[in-house]
# Entry
Amino acid sequence: MKLLLELLVVDDNPADVALVCEALAGSKLHSKINSVGDGVEAMAFLNRREKYVNALRPDLVILDLNLPKRDGLAVLAAMKAGPDLRRIPVVIFSTSQLRKDIVRSYEMGANCYVNKPGNLTEFFSAVKSIEEFWFGFVNLPPRGE
Amino acid sequence: MSSAGTKLEKQDSAAPQSKLRALLVEDNALDAALVVRALYKDGFDVSADVVQDEAAFTQTLRAHPPEVVLADYNLPNWRGMEALKVLRREGLDIPMILVSGALGDVTAVECIKQGATDYVLKDGLARLPEVIRRALREKDERSLRQHVEEDLARKVDELARSNADLEQFAYVASHDLQEPLRMVTAYTQLLSERYRGKLDENADKYIGYASEGAQRMQVLIQDLLAFSRVGRNGVATGSVDCNAVMAEVLQTLAPAIHESGAVVTYDALPSVWADRTQLAQVFQNLVGNAIKFRGKEPPVVSVLAEKNPQRWQFSVSDNGIGIAPEFAENIFVVFQRLHARTEYPGNGIGLAICKKIVERNGGRIWVESQPGSGCSFKFTLPLHGPDGAEGAPS
# Structure
């Protein structure tokens, strides 16, 4: 039996989360999409605190940079500093095309940096490509407990 | 009567007098009186304080700032030249003239080097009024010049600040506008894909309009961002070989050149002092426009440079549709277009970017054209870098 892959989308814009869900709606990979709206929630989810006590460790995190409370780079830094979380691949998914955001993300251990396309078709294809690559091609580490 | 020194005033109902407040550094009361008389005779309505030492001098300076200081060179308790130091310490620009008995030429020259305005011998006091008049005139000119310079510096500052604000604003606005617009674009697109033919005919049309509008706005914002970015990253200047830049530009434009059958030539272009990426963009925009705005004939575009005494002048000339002279200025303004989007695509950002780049690199850009007979875009770039560094000879 194939294990259900867990995806965590960290994005404060529900419309973007909805687009990610739409993009993956017909996918054969049947990943389970979880979403949180800010950096503090993201860390609570990842560390399975409070209402996320029963959450599973995600197999992939799609992380927006511009987030309320604790921004994307802070979440990335906290993940890469934690022994259990650092193995989880992180895809930065942001509208920012600033060189400094891109460089900083990779320097801090992001696994890839994808711009959110403005056009729906491209947005869908970006999200589908992320899913196909990370959940279809890549050998992921065993989920930490 | 001054608290610190003697006060001498001489007034009469003689010729028209110009008021003068003088501070005399003098131990000899008779000499002081002679000085005042010499000035009075020459039309000065003098009010003079007389002091002999540093304390009284400083105190009087502060209490009654004079227009001129007249100092004896040798005093029993002080030296006249010390008065200069006090003036400097107090931050005062007041002319100081030495009025002295025998003063050797060497000493006199030394005093003037140290900052005395002039010197007058006590047995030549008739010269004093003219010396004072000149000193006051020079001081007026000095302060006027300083005032003008300060004014100019302040305006330059203000302009730089407001420019920087504007650039920051354009950047932030276009960046922050993208986010909500992306939602509009994505969701109108999703609506039109999911619900086409499921509502009614008008609904499809309306969604189409909304979707097209949002997409066009997205392109405009992208252009505005590109325009505001020209200034943001500073100008990374160096020596740039324009031949190499043109070769790259032609490669980038290869599809358009092929499709239009254009012939683009350039010959022996120089190396110039500029930002390479930005310069490439100027050539690309100008050559690209020359191809885009073509007439019935295949485009013929030539890129040339000539050296003037002060600067390089480049020209990009074509045989296209040309531009009426009344639009020659307008076309360099952001989002100004002369043609319907259906005739010639584009947003009217290219030439605005060219203008910004050329000006940031120290040149200017203009167009010479007649409708129907092609046009020639010209721009200049400095011969030298800021520190005299030259583009290597090509």
